[in-house]
Amino acid sequence: MTPAETPPTFHGAQTPRTTRAALAQYDAAVPEWGIGEIDDAGRWIPHELPGLLVIAPHPDDEVLGAAALIAAGLRRGSPVRVLAATDGTGSHPSSSIPADQLAEIRAAESEAAMAELRSLTPGPHGLGTLERIRLQLPDGELSTHTESLTEAIGAALQDLPDGTLVTAPLSRDGHPDHDACGEAAAAAAAQHNAPLVQYPVWLWLHSTPPAPRAAGEEAPGADEASELRAEAAPSSGTEVPWTAARSIPIDAELARVRGRAVAGFVSQLGTAHGTPVDRAPGEPVLTATMLATVLRERQIVFPGTPLDFEGLHAGQADPWGVTSRWYEQRKYALTMAVLPRARYRRAFEPGCSIGVLTEQLAQRCDAVLATDISGSALQAATRRVAAENVTFEQASIEDWPDGTIDLILISELAYYLNDSQWATVLGRAADTLESGGHLVSVHWRHPDAQAFRSAEQIRADLRAVPGWDLHGSYADPDMLIDVLGPASPSVAQTEFLH
């Protein structure tokens, strides 16, 4: 890797654009990732994590960017596999040290770091396993090997449990190898319907996160969020999905273990093997300033929603089992039962999938607009529902219909929306839900690594919408259902209590 191969605004040696105090303020405002929680020992542990696959562009990235994720997997008792894309032979010129010798040094440093992470105290499910696999792709050239890297990630997923979480550098991290790993991981996750979370490393050196919102300040809408991303990104114009960020706290034990692991990367912390290719004489790759900027009290991650909904519906007639599972049949019956009115004028059902709930809504509504981003799902829904009062459209949640609505169904959808999208949905729903109308929220309570928020968080956000009352709710260990909307009489008050 040479400075010419990196983005013109950044090659890793510059002074950070953001002070550590500002980063600490930003970290404190980032919501904690809802797929886990802090246990009695102060450790953040996921509720469920079948496996973890970490993509590391170079030896040390797995610790600098993903130590908290690896610790979470180990403490959950899960199998953790680190896929080392390169051996990091581009960090020093071959005139200073032969590439094959440097490869073995850096691989050994990474193995020693893995041993440090294995020393973590086991969680309630025991300590998971941790292994490292070398792909030995050329350092500095991963952007020309994304296809083989994507295939390698897919092959690794085949050997891990279903539901394994893929984690890789942010595809806007600012280093070409990191960006390539992020893009390859996103492609592989989509192909295999695996959850994805991206981690930043060099991002903190070249970009400025948005300032935290003041108390009571509304979340930005879609247009404003886009402007914030552009303003906070490097001058190269790449966008960073700041509103998708989530945090993982670094407990005292993990901080100590992470510190020991980083200290083992001697080749990157000094100049015993010569001056690195993009550093001034006497300057190491990992400077004290860089480490202090990256290794903070919270690890920031960017959960993604890589599910290929089109591929799911194209490959399976009923990917969610909505026509075969009693859970789904019961959920739909409960949803219809909580509707306070016998009849609605106009219903909106985003994310309708294959139209099982749509079919039932058609019997209670004069008109139903059902949308989904998957064309295959809509084809199946059209075949299922022949009612003339139903209109199907291929659209995303942000394609909100014009006019007023008296029934909005948001079912199994809100957790997949980033903060900007969710804020937009809340605002549009409040603006378009007419007097006497209802919004019904139905969401799965169990943890989901692809989710930006839990069912409990969705419930709290909906109940905080100004001008809305709670008209009914249902809860069991699997699901939460809420009926909200402007103040209106109860069913009995409407029908016979006067």
Automatic annotation (TrEMBL):
Name of the molecule in the record: Methyltransferase family protein
InterPro entries membership: GlcNAc_PI_deacetylase-related (IPR003737), LmbE-like_dom_sf (IPR024078), Methyltransf_25 (IPR041698), SAM-dependent_MTases_sf (IPR029063)
Keyword Chloroplast appears in the UniProt entry: no
Keyword terms: Methyltransferase, Transferase, Zinc
Organism: Nesterenkonia sandarakina
Residue span of region Disordered: 210-241
PANTHER family on file: BLR3841 PROTEIN, N-ACETYLGLUCOSAMINYL-PHOSPHATIDYLINOSITOL DE-N-ACETYLASE-RELATED
Domain Methyltransferase: 350-437
A GO biological-process term: methylation
Molecular function as annotated in GO: hydrolase activity, acting on carbon-nitrogen (but not peptide) bonds, in linear amides; methyltransferase activity
Origin superkingdom: Bacteria
Keyword check for Nucleus: no
